[in-house]
Amino acid sequence: MRYTLPTVQALRARSEIVSPLGALLGGAYAALLAFRPLRDPDLFWHLAVGRYVAEHHALPTRNLWSYTAPDQPFLASSWLFDLVLHGLERAGGFVLLQAVLALVVGATFAVLFLASRRRGASPAVALAICLALATASEARFTPRPQVVTYLFLALTVLLLGRPAEAPRPRVIALLALILAVWANMHAGVVFGLGVVGCCVVGAMFENRSAGWAGLAAPPSRRWLITGACCLLAAMVTPHTTGLLRYATFHLGEVNRVVELGEFATPTLRDSPIFWILLVLAPLLFFGARRRLGPGDWVALVAFGVLAARAVRVVVEFFLVVGPPFALALAVQFERLSAAPRLRRVPWVLPPAALAASLALAPFPWWHVFLRPRPGVDPWYVPMAALARARDWGIAGRCFAGWDVSGLVEWGAPEDKVQIDPRLLAYPPEVFHELGEAERSPEAFDALVRRHDIEWAFRSQRFMRYVGAGMFLPDRWAIVYWDESGLVLLRRDVPRFQSLIAAHEYHELLPSSPVLEQWTNLRGPARERWVEEAHRLAATSPRLVTPRVALALDALGSGRLDESRTLLNQAAGSARELSRLHPQPDGSVSTVTSIAFTLLAKALVSSGRLDEADGASREAVALAPRSADTWTGLGYAWMGANAARATEAFHTALRFRAGHPSAQAGLERLQGNSGR
């Protein structure tokens, strides 16, 4: 198809409008994904390091906050990032920190869009790739120095442009400046060196027929100069070559110390877009081989191997392979566009890519729009529990779980911890010691006594290195707990005796079966249970458990209106949690749902059928696939509406075949109808 000069000018003008708009859309979507409540445990030890640098005007060189390895050498590889992080938190709190994080992530994917356009991809294809890869990367949008690596890596790919074209001196200088700053922000600078190295190797391969003369040719010579300048720039750090050793440890040797999910092989279930891209890229690259260079193939192989080894490198793979993949895909659509009827097909790509990537994401699509909110995630970061411990003057050697030890280092630096996620701040023996201790409560107790640990600070999560299920009740007392954390004190420490006597929880604990307790507890134990529920409800407004307990107590005393008010409060708290952390089965709170069925039963018995109907609908909304909920509704309506009860029992059996209570309810209804 031939274009006249006015047509070419019109297309160029439209491209000048569409490209910035595409970069803005892609960047805004990525920023939306990144602006979520802060919950990454590493955030707080980064803040602690940044505070140390700001206060001492020097880098920490040893492990400052541990009693198990206080003299272990520590390389502050991300000291500049930590210092900036500390400054942002001091200037505007966690909200400013969130906003800057979202801007960095948004800028990364705007640059990815521009890099794809520079390689020759159409705006529609570039935007589609940007949206899909942003969705696939969202799990890594955390307040860690890796986000700086993402931005600088995208900028490096953009500046290098087409690997077949050697960079000009101005670009080389800009690349060197980026890598020099990057090297003080994160050890991920090695990925920038890797991209440059792939281009250098590609250029050497392209000129291989000329032998040594080809290496002396201006393009090859310029690539060699680029590589040398970038390597020297990456050494402009207080750590020089130590930074490269730090990076190679994380890329190859880390599993000798500890097994972490981010260093595991990405699975098809958790990272489907990565595997789709890895399979399709060679096919599309081959189809566009005349417009791609050897450097693109080298980068595909090198970063593909790294990402296939560790899910942590998947985003780097996306940023490096994304632009040439977008070009290769655009080539295929150019061929389709030769047919007039298919000319507009590429503009279907962005919404289709967004819809497909959200369908493959490990979270519901609507979660993207409900999750953004300012501040720290209260269900993951137990800041209130730490504040309560400090208010009570609790101090001494602390067992802090792996996921909250950084919070102690930042919020209570005078209390030493046994271990934190800074892998090279501890010898491997420290990790192995804790791993062995978690094999049994007795072994764990021996570890506690060996290090003279006096109090413990834990989250509500069950994972390795947090002491979950290891604290024996006869030796430890829980004096505070809420939706995200708990504080435990050793019973044999004399100075804690008054705190334990005044604040220990005996009956209502994080793992308490509230419904069974309501049914079975009697006498003083029941009174303590109710008192502890009142105390928890007063100190932890987001906690569902105490409100359900108090609602059941009111229900047992015939105070139906009070019970309904308390259950509504519990449902509100559960829904707030579900908006941030939805369950795969769509349930919001099963225990609150079952409590609503008990309220519905009491309302039916009182003749308040309209209110019982409302309680029943609320029970289903909170746990739509719970067989216990549907069984409870069957019994609730058995005396007033046999058809509704029968339907509820059948629904329960559909969700759990052979459910004994549902089966018994059906048999009872059939027996009544037979009489």
Layout of SSEs?
Layout: H1 5-34, H2 42-56, H3 79-119, H4 123-137, H5 146-160, H6 169-183, H7 189-206, H8 212-216, H9 218-234, H10 241-253, H11 272-287, H12 294-309, H13 314-336, H14 349-360, H15 367-370, H16 383-391, E1 398-400, H17 405-411, H18 428-437, H19 441-450, E2 455-459, E3 476-481, E4 485-490, H20 497-503, H21 514-520, H22 523-539, H23 544-556, H24 560-580, H25 590-605, H26 609-622, H27 627-637, H28 642-655, H29 660-674
Parallel strand pairs: 1-2
Antiparallel strand pairs: 2-4, 3-4
Helix pairs in contact: 1-3, 1-4, 2-3, 2-17, 3-4, 3-5, 3-13, 4-13, 4-14, 5-6, 5-7, 5-13, 6-9, 7-9, 7-12, 11-13, 12-13, 18-19, 22-23, 23-24, 23-25, 24-25, 25-26, 25-27, 27-28, 28-29
Textual characterization of the structure:
Helix content is 63%, strand content 3%. The N and C termini lie far apart (84 Å). Helix 2 (42-56) packs across helix 3 (79-119) and helix 4 packs parallel to helix 14 (349-360). The longest helix is centred in the N-terminal third of the chain and has 41 residues, at 79-119. It has 675 residues and is mainly alpha-helical. The chain contains 29 helices and 4 strands. It has a 4-stranded mixed β-sheet. It has 3 domains: 20-370, no CATH class; 383-503, no CATH class; 514-674, Serine Threonine Protein Phosphatase 5, Tetratricopeptide repeat (Alpha Horseshoe), CATH 1.25.40.10.
Structural class: mainly alpha
How many domains comprise the coordinates?
A: 3
By DSSP, the count of extended strands is 4
Helix-residue proportion: 55-70%
Main sheet: strands, sense, barrel: 4 strands, mixed
Which residues sit in consecutive blocks of at least 5 with pLDDT less than 50? 1-14
Q: Please give the alpha-carbon distance between the first and last residues.
A: 84 Å
